[in-house]
Write a structure and sequence with these properties.
Layout: H1 2-21, H2 30-33, H3 57-60, H4 65-82, H5 102-139, H6 144-151, H7 154-174, H8 183-189, H9 196-216, H10 218-228, H11 238-262, H12 270-307, E1 320-328, E2 337-344, E3 347-353, E4 362-369, E5 374-377, E6 386-390, E7 395-399, H13 403-423, E8 479-480, E9 487-488, E10 495-499, E11 505-509, H14 511-518, E12 545-554, E13 564-570, E14 576-580, E15 590-593, E16 598-601, E17 609-614, E18 617-622, H15 626-640
Antiparallel strand pairs: 1-2, 1-7, 2-3, 3-4, 5-6, 6-7, 8-9, 10-11, 12-13, 12-18, 13-14, 14-15, 16-17, 17-18
Length: 654
Amino acid sequence: MMEGVNKKELASVSNLETGFENSTPGAVPRAHMLEDKSHQPGYRPPQTPEPWENYSLGESLGSEPRTVSRRYLSSLKNKLSSGAWRKSYQPETGPGSGTQEPKERIVQELLETEQAYVARLHLLDQVFFQELLKEARSSKAFPEDVVRLIFSNISSIYQFHSQFFLPELQRRLDDWTATPRIGDVIQKLAPFLKMYSEYVKNFERAAELLATWTDKSPPFQEVITRIQSSEASGSLTLQHHMLEPVQRIPRYELLLKEYVQKLPAQAPDRDDAQKALDMIFSAAQHSNAAITEMERLQDLWEVYQRLGLEDDIVDPSNTLLREGPVLKISFRRSDPMERYLFLFNNMLLYCVPRVIQVGAHFHVRTRIDVAGMKVRELSDVEFPNAFLVSGKQRTLELQARSQEEMISWMQACQAAIDQIEKRNETFKAAVQGPEGDTQEQELQSEELGLRAPQWVRDKMVTMCMRCQEPFNALMRRRHHCRACGYVVCARCSDYRAKLKYDDNRPNRVCCDCYTFLTGNVLAEDKEDKRRGILEKGSAAGSEQNLMCSFLQLLGDRWGRNGPRGWCVIPSDDPFVLYIYAAPQDMRAHTSIPLLGYQVTAGPQADPRVFQLQQSGQLYTFKAETKELRGRWVKAVERAASGQSPGEPNGDLSD
């Protein structure tokens, strides 16, 4: 029986070869001979194709095969993913369902379409592929590797179907009377259908190479045109023939699904057929995964092109999680700057858009590894919707355009962090504590030098955060410690220490960090001074203060209004109001003991003003809002009356 099957198969293939080589009017390919069976008894015409199967031949003949192939694969992937065309069918119980034998016609159609499909595979592998290889070797007009890339693993697919799948189907149909079942045959061969994923994944690249070399190489185009014009090709393009393997597995599932539907509930083949259907569906999903992977690589390559294809960034194993514009809060400038972020599964790229976008669209300013990265929201009145990204390489203060966008970025970053930690099998404490918990701006001492610090903004201090000497534009300028991020003067930052986050390169650090990182004790150049009454850190965080915010002091002795000051009633000194030039200053420029002061309303023209008065002393303050003014009045009244913070309503901090 096997010899008879091989003779029939060889006869089918020889008909196709004769049609191509001789192109005689009498030679008809096997694929077209099947059309003559429409007048035979018992012939079952093909069903109307599903919408996803409709493929316009006019599109395949167009001048833009890349767009066609991408659109077709996307529609196929969506159809496979939806599962809408794979429903659970119950056996028919209607009248006549047990007497009719439509399943034989379905098996017959499966065999006939398989014969036509093998003929098409022969055309692809033994004709197009081999002829192009022969031309590449003889003329050297185009590389052999290009031909192999275009046809991918078509030879393996052809051998499988011609030597195994088709003979098994033919043998079972010849013995149908004794063994009326097909599920066991398909079960045995279905796992090999996963080889299609390689072909499907390569399909778009193959279409691009085909279009490129058709335009680029006249010998390449001449071979393809000659074969396409033959009767064996049926006047169809090579790309149209190359679509056949992409469509074949869904066709198997449609036929087998209908076969299972037609089987009676107690049919011997029902369990095997259902298992075979599941295996076919698994192969279809395998192809779907290949399409998804192909699209991921395509999108990833486009992103890398926008970034300039830098060697330390390009990695095909990466996954792009999110991208978009953000605002960078500068530690020197008052207005935020436009920046762009690319978040991958293993790194965050901080980029600057190029003015002239020729080639690369962005310049990568910083790469931050997701491993070890932290993200949290910033409580900043001046910059709403701000969040902090702290990594080993750098710490960034960023501002989103809305609350929703900020939450989305933070969730995406946190998801990437959690995935890295899970993959590395680490069980770290949650990076973000609950809202309201203490979140120090400065690094913990054990992290100094291991992680890039958050830099204190210049305008947040008016004096050195180590020696408390005031800054000025000429003699005492601002510098940042690269270990803790403090703003310090040149004298307090005249030290260098190696920082691990910067590949152990020496960096400018303050005196305290130098001592901690190197273990060297600095010689005292002056006697330790007694701490002055105003030398009390402002502690900008509301957790350490009963009340703190900006207030403007109105009307000095000459009637002039002063600038805004950072006003604080600290928790550990609840009866004194300290006024600082900036929130991060280590020394206040004014302190007011509040005991005995009377709080009165300011001029009726401005509801944001209140006054403190005692023994001829008068201070007039202006808050930013009416609500904030009310809170300050309550806080000062409590302090002036001597109520301690432990009493009810003692904490009025923002």
